[in-house]
């Protein structure tokens, strides 16, 4: 089941929507002409600890406007996925996906004006039994 949204709690998702970490050091612009695509949670060891709802965007659909120097990279296990977070406040902003390296997942909670607690019905992907780990 795929969840796509053009609005959350009366706030429209803009075709070019701003995303910020908590302290504002990292400012990202996301290309979202179709709204939020493929919203999900994951139960891998990292995602279940951070608890974020992620949505999808193509690699060229994300632009770091400010704070590239504050972004820190974290990788684990196969080192395929690239998880980025603000080195000042620690908030996860986005990651290049292991399941689809041509996409970024981004933290819906970082979207300007969006309350992720108002989003319902988000599926959880099985990151514990990821196909790349089978074999």
Automatic annotation (TrEMBL):
Keyword terms: Metal-binding, Zinc
Leader sequence segment: none
Domain CENP-V/GFA: 17-126
Taxonomic superkingdom: Bacteria
Pfam family, one: GFA
Family: Belongs to the Gfa family.
Name the UniProt record assigns to this protein: GFA family protein
Organism name: Microbulbifer salipaludis
Lineage: Bacteria, Pseudomonadati, Pseudomonadota, Gammaproteobacteria, Cellvibrionales
